[in-house]
Structure formats: structure tokens, C-alpha cells
Amino acid sequence: MSEHDSHDDEQISTLYRRLSREAPSPQLDERVMATARRHTARRSHHWWLPLSTAAVVVLAVSLLLRYQQAPDELDKEIAKYEANPAPSVSAPAPAPAPAVPGKEARTRVKPAQQPKSYVADAPVAEAPLAETEKSAEPPAEAAKENAFVGALAPAADLAETKPSAAARSAAAPRAAAGELQKREAAVEAPEIWLKRIEALRAKGELDAAKRELAAFRKAYPAWPLSKELQALVPESAK
Amino acid sequence: MDLGNDSDEALLSRYFGGELTAFETLYSRYRAPLYRFVLRTLRNGAEAEDLYHEVWSRIITTSQRFSDVTPGAFKAYLYQIARNLLIDRSRRATLQLVETDDPPEVASDAPTPDIQLHYDDCGERLLLAIDGLPAEQREAFLLKEESGLSLEQIAVMVSTGRETIKSRLRYAMKKLRELLEGCL
Description:
heterodimer, A: mainly alpha, 65% helix, B: mainly alpha, Rna Polymerase Sigma Factor, Chain: A, Arc Repressor Mutant, subunit A, globular
């Protein structure tokens, strides 16, 4: 290529550049920018989506762990929350709670698992269980049912059986503190009570055993008694 | 924030980091030359607009993986995408032609020989001369003039040797010189 040709090539390039005025229309520019904007928004959305999902998962797992580690605390908090007396609830007497269903009463009398907090609802134990149809069921059946309930709920739930909302709302706030404590002290689970009576009988303290048994039968008229204890019940009271 | 001094590659990275202004800057650098390259290759305004938009859409949607920070890498990448899309379109057009036996489509803004008679302006003659170049020579000329890529970069893009590109350019210039006789 000669020097002249090279000079001509330069001129061609200069001429071409001078002609180069075409550019995309503003509408075309806007189309491209709209695409860019849309994808920026989508990318920022993609960034938030996994983050929010991860946050939800972490929250759920931590709540689950917390519940597994301290279900009692959570239950107490729930009970505390539910125990707030609702203004619409009528104020029944603090003592016997006949409204409590038999099933619930049976759950309450579960021996050995009787937690202290449960005793606070002791007046319920004095409820005339015989008046309810289910209360006539023997304790063995109640235990069976509790076992079924236990299979559905964590063991910790059973250990601290929740009272019904009505009973909960009626109990603590309305009873005078002193009277409640006296009642709590006086009442014990029927099985334990019967064992104590059995022990008195075994020791030969028959009078004391009879007295206790009379009191027991007054509280739990329908509660089935062993043959030995039935022998202590006076004929007139049978 | 002034992004004017940032490299193309840095701007692209910032755009993918969520800065739309970085894309605006990058876009403003290449909008006109890329558009002309597409327009003069296709010689059809409407098709050129569609393809031009498609090129930028590809950049926006697929170049997140683009990680080459070598200076000029983005420019080569941009024109490579444009070229690939032009080839695809050309192949589709050829297939259509074979299938339908339609006569070759005449680009709407490509001047006919009759109109050519009226072009006495050197500029218009140059554009006509470019249109009349064989495809490979026209591509080499337009890439050199519009993209500003080096011969080596064009050779890589076209998958051929530097000397081949040089030769294509030489032939292109020879023809243009002949067609622009009296203007130079």
C-alpha cells in the first residue's frame, strides 16, 4: 500500500466518521433502560428472597428449640396469659367447680404426675365427680386415656395438665389468698389419700382410717374402693 | 457520583451490584457506535432496532458471569454478542429464503441503483459504497470504524487470523477508494 493510498484511507475514515450521526431513537434508548431497570429490580428481589426465607427458617428453628428445651416455661407463660380474667366471664364461687368436665377432672387427679402448680386448682378436686357421667369411670380408664393424651402431647404437657379456661379464669384471681392456701394444703390427690388411709388401716389405726375414709367418700363418693377399704365403710353409709 | 472514569468492566460490575447509573454510563458509551454497526450491517432500520435491543438485553441478562477485567474486554464482548445475533438472523433469513423461494429481501433503506444516480454528495457515495462491499469486508470495515477494536481483537472475534482481517480491510479500502474517486 502506497503512502498515497494510506492518505486516502485516512480520508475515508474521516469522511465516514463525519457521516456517523445515526443513533438509537429516544424510544429505543428507553426500551433498553427499561430492561436494565427491570433486571436490577429483579436482582434486588432475588437478593431479598433467600435472605427473608433464611430469617424465617432461623426464627422457626429457634422457637422450636426453645420450646423443646423449656416447654414448662412456655406453658406457664401461656397459662399466665390465659388466666387474665376476661370481663365477660361471670364470677362463680371459688370453690367447687361443677362446670369442670369429668375428663378434665380425671386428668387432674393423675397421681404422681401431680405438679405443685396444679394443686392451685385443688377446689376442682373437691368437685362432686359423681354428678358427671364420666367421673364414674375407674381410675385405670382415666390413666389409659391420659396415656393416649400423652401420646399426642409432649410429656411435659401432661405433667402440668392445663385447666380449662373457665376454671383458670375463675380460680386464682377470685379466691382470697389465705383461703386458697388452706384449701391447697387440705386437698390431696385421691390415690394418695387412699394410700394414706390404707396405711392407717395396715397399721391398725382403724378409727383414724374410718374417719379419713368417711371424709374421702364425702369428697369422692363415686371413687371405687378396694375390698379392704370397703370393709371399713359403715353399713349405713354403703 | 462521577462514573465517567470507570472502566467498562467496572461499570458492568457496579450495575450488577445494583447501580443503575453505572449501566447508564456504560450504555451512553456504546449506544451510537453499536447502533450504527448493527444498522449498517443489516441495512434495515426496524430490524436493526430489534437486534440492537436484543444485544443489550443479552448484556443485561447474561453477562453477570462476565468476569474479564482486561481493558477492552467488555467492548469485544459487546460486539461479539452483536455479531453472533447478526449471524443468527442472517442464517434464519437464508433458511427462509430457501424454504419459500421468495426473492431476496431488499432492505428498506438500502438505496437502489436508480437512487444512486442522485447521490452526488461524497458522504452518500461512501455509504453506498460500504453497502456494496462483500459481507466479510464490510464487517471488517465497520468493526474497525465503529468499535475501535484492534486488528487482533477483530481477528479473535471473527475467529480468523490478524493477517486475514488486514487483507479484508485492504480490499475494502481499495474498493471504497475506487468508488469515491473525485472525492478524496
